[in-house]
């Protein structure tokens, strides 16, 4: 089915609100395989006609790559919303979203160099809640997965629920998912730790160098103001100093950027830990360190398991 045909089957008309109850016609009695995907959505109980309409909220992920990662359910939430807020990484992606809904409000202008991102994120929550409280169906659309390294979607859902509104998070394909596919990494093989890079500097954390280490937001590492768009080599030097406790300086470091447009290919750069301060790392890149240690046997646990096996064989 083409994009246009999908739009047609959604039954949505520009600027119109979906009616809460529609009389059945013969056309509605279709084989299950032909059901438009939005029928899979949970339906809200329709309010009695004199009750004010309750607002609701859905935070959905658009995935990483324009066009190919959007799930039918996420699309359905977008199309059925009264108002759509967009926290996307790319202006082109935002234009694409505008083709799906006439009222898409960008959250991007609230970012400003020097302004704390926490202030921006709180503003996003408030913008969405104002519309929910006004009785609108609100959809917050975020790139990747809306719940991965993303504060506002979790917060606005928590706030909406605390105020008695229905709120839902719809997962999306994140940078993490793309990374596993593009780098050929299976997190189940040796285990995989994920950290926001600054958190490694701000707090005492334990790194397991027998598994993969994935570092997010390395381009901003060490930014205590939360107001900078990037930090520099000196900040990455501190990160390298910390990582060198667990990894040799010639250990491989992968700098990964997944494709956001269908015409792009993933960008995969390989360097060493020593070189990390001297290469550019953008805000759209994630850093991966493969294991530097082989897995060590836990002899004590193996002995206890053996004893258990013997016990259960005797029973
Ligand atoms: C605020 S987080 C948002 C993550 C997003 N919610 C997701 O599900 O992937 C921003 C971080 O995601 C990672 N990221 C964003 N875009 C990326 C891309 N195209 N490729 C790889 N990593 C990316 C980087 O580590 C970046 O610093």
From TrEMBL:
- Coiled-coil regions, chain positions: none
| Entry-linked CDD domains | OphMA_like
Using the record's annotation, list all stretches that form the Tetrapyrrole methylase domain: 57-276
Q: Where is this region: Disordered?
A: 1-29
GO BP annotation list: methylation
Q: Which Pfam families does UniProt cross-reference here?
A: TP_methylase
Give the molecular function GO annotations. methyltransferase activity
Where on the tree of life does the source sit, at the highest rank? Bacteria
Which keywords annotate this record? Methyltransferase, Transferase
Q: Which InterPro entries match?
A: 4pyrrol_Mease, 4pyrrol_Methylase_sf, 4pyrrole_Mease_sub1
Q: Does the keyword DNA damage apply?
A: no
Q: Report the protein name in the record.
A: Precorrin-3B methylase
């Amino acid at each position: 089915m083409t994009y246009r045909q999908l739009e047609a089957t959604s039954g949505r008309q520009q600027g119109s609100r979906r009616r809460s109850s529609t009389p059945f016609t013969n056309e509605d009695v279709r084989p299950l395989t032909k059901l438009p995907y939005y029928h899979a959505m949970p339906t809200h109980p329709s309010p009695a006609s004199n009750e004010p309409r309750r607002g609701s909220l859905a935070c959905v992920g658009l995935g990483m790559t324009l066009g190919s990662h959007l799930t039918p359910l996420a699309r359905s939430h977008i199309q059925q919303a009264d108002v759509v807020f967009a926290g996307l990484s790319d202006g082109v992606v935002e234009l694409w979203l505008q083709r799906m809904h006439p009222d898409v409000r960008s959250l991007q202008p609230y970012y400003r160099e020097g302004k704390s991102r926490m202030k921006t994120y709180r503003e996003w929550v408030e913008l969405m809640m104002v519309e929910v409280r006004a009785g609108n169906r609100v959809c917050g659309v975020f790139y990747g997965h809306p719940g991965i390294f993303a504060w506002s979607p979790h917060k606005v859902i928590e706030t909406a629920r605390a105020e008695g509104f229905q709120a839902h998070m719809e997962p999306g394909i994140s940078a993490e998912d793309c990374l596993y596919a593009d780098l050929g990494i299976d997190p189940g093989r040796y285990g995989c730790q994920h950290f926001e890079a600054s958190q490694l500097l701000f707090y005492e954390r334990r790194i397991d160098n027998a598994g993969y280490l994935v570092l997010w937001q390395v381009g901003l590492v060490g930014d205590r103001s939360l107001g900078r768009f990037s930090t520099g080599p000196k900040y990455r030097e501190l990160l390298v100093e910390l990582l060198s406790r667990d990894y040799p300086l010639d250990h491989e470091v992968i700098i990964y950027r997944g494709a956001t447009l269908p015409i792009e290919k993933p960008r995969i750069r390989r360097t060493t830990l020593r070189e990390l301060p001297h290469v550019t790392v953008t805000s759209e890149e994630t850093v991966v360190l493969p294991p530097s240690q082989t897995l060590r046997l836990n002899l004590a646990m193996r002995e206890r398991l053996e004893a258990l096996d013997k016990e259960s064989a005797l029973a």
